[in-house]
Design brief:
Structural class: alpha+beta
Number of strands: 21
Length: 496
């Protein structure tokens, strides 16, 4: 009976998975069908726009060339008209002189005849008819303005749809996910020297396998990529996976998308839990700041008495203003001088990394991990359930690693950003200079229950960066130092 139930359960699981695949496939086909309709309308609209643009160019060229012909016509007409006017005037003057000369032949008086002959000679010498060029200044030939459109006609008649580049192929084996960066590599299925650039698209998702049409996130687009690989850097890995696809473009057309690939981008993400923080801390998702007006004066005095005899961070002066506390998960709220806030996500296995940056004027802060059962009045590093490094800028500056009420002074400069590396299964907690990856301190222990990131702040604030992978430099260092006790073996703890 049990074996039959197990077999049936496997069948049900297989059917459920197949149903989910079919739903996703149906969504994909429906989306593609809608895309065909939309894209067909778009290319028709684009084609009409191209032809309208071509018509517009032809109309402009026609108007320009027509104006050139008309200007040439006007120039020749003006020149010939001027010649015609001058020639007509010269002809009239010549005819008048000819008539006068014929009349002079009938003069009988020799003196008057001589006078008339001299006058005729002088007028002939100055006559316009003898100074005119008897050649038209322009010809009637307009063939130099004839256009030959045979080549253009052949080009237009040869118009075809543009050759579209083939879809690239993403080489999953060559893609690299490391240091909160993703390098995507691809290749063309065949050589294409017409490729001008590529378009890479990506999106974050929590679904393994092929991208889903109804995914909650849209594709991000990176255009004008000139090589067959691209690196996205400085990412926050706040999703389990990322989808990638790429398309090739020539100078006029973009090809189809490559088959999409899904790469794992898993990292440790958490927020600061305001429901279990001290009243004097103002907590947001990734920031915590000291708030001196956050606690109730009377409650502070009572807690101070309860906490009498405990040594720790100096308590600042409390404000006398009283106000009701914000809504909190009451059981785990910290009080007294335990100015603590925990992360809202537990670590139960694996290797994880996050970074912390303190405000420049922060007087005192601690960064580390703790068990969930850390007491309300407990300060980080002063119990056997918490591990941290502590920075104190109050009165006398100190930098130390703390655990189980023991402190180890760290003879290094306090970095601007502190990187925290936790190997739960290997029982190791290390702190690094987040910029140079210099090791600051390592705890070796055996975690007997889940742990959470833990922070203490007094007079200042911290900003936490999560969604980070373990840096490659840290991985290499951990491999090289595997089995060593770290820089403060005196603080290594025994199994709890």
């Amino acid at each position: 009976m049990d074996s039959q139930k197990e077999a049936l359960q496997r069948i049900i699981t297989t059917l459920a998975n197949k149903n989910e695949e079919l739903h996703n496939f149906i969504d994909t086909v429906s989306h593609t069908l809608k895309g065909v309709q939309n894209n067909s309308s778009k290319v028709i609209s684009d084609l009409e726009e191209e032809f309208d643009s071509l018509y517009s160019v032809l109309d402009e060229m026609k108007e320009s060339m027509t104006n050139t012909i008309k200007q040439e016509q006007a120039r020749k007409t003006q020149e010939l008209q001027n010649q015609l006017t001058q020639s007509t005037s010269a002809l009239e003057s010549s005819e008048e002189l000819l008539e006068f000369a014929n009349t002079a032949l009938d003069i009988k008086d020799s003196e008057e005849f001589a006078k008339a002959a001299k006058q005729i000679k002088d007028r002939v010498t100055m006559a316009p008819a003898f100074r005119l060029t008897m050649k038209p200044k322009a010809t009637d030939n307009m063939t130099h303005l004839m256009a030959d459109f045979s080549q253009e006609r052949r080009i237009i008649q040869g118009l075809r749809f543009l050759p579209v580049p083939r879809a690239p192929e993403i080489d999953v084996a060559d893609c690299v996910v490391a240091d909160n960066s993703v390098t995507v590599c691809w290749r063309m299925p065949e050589e294409d020297n017409k490729i001008d650039h590529y378009i890479l698209e990506y999106r974050k998702t929590n679904h393994e396998g092929l991208p889903r049409v109804k995914d909650e996130r849209c594709w991000e687009v990176l255009d004008n990529i000139r090589s067959t690989e691209y690196s996205l850097t400085g990412l926050k890995f706040d999703s389990k996976y990322m989808n990638f696809r790429v398309r090739a473009c020539n100078k006029a057309a973009a090809g189809d998308h490559s088959d999409p690939v899904t790469l794992e981008t898993r990292a440790f993400n958490f927020s600061l839990d305001s429901t279990c923080s001290h009243l004097n801390l103002k907590v947001e998702d990734s920031c915590v700041e000291w708030d001196p007006a956050g606690g109730k004066g009377q409650e502070s005095k009572i807690k101070g008495k309860e906490n009498k005899g405990r040594s720790g961070t100096p308590s600042p002066k409390r404000t006398s203003t009283t106000r009701p506390p914000p809504v909190r998960g009451s059981r785990d709220r910290f009080t007294g001088e335990s100015y603590t806030v925990l992360g809202d996500s537990s670590i139960e296995s694996g290797q994880h990394y996050w970074e912390v940056k303190a405000q420049k004027d922060c007087k005192s802060y601690s960064v580390g991990v703790a068990y969930r059962n850390l007491g309300k009045f407990d300060q980080l590093g002063k119990t056997n359930t918490s591990w941290c490094i502590h920075v104190n800028n109050w009165l006398q500056a100190t930098f130390a690693a703390k655990h189980n009420n023991k402190a180890k002074s760290l003879e290094v400069a306090v970095p601007d950003r502190i990187g925290v590396y936790c190997d739960f299964d290997g029982g190791q907690l290390s702190f690094y200079n987040a910029d140079s990856k210099q090791l600051l301190h390592t705890f070796k222990t055996k975690f007997t229950q889940s742990i959470v990131p833990a922070f203490m702040v007094w007079c200042g604030g911290l900003t936490v960066s999560t969604g980070l992978q373990v840096p490659s430099a840290v991985k290499c260092f951990q491999k090289a130092e595997n089995g060593l006790g770290g820089s403060a073996s005196s603080l290594n703890s025994v199994p709890q």
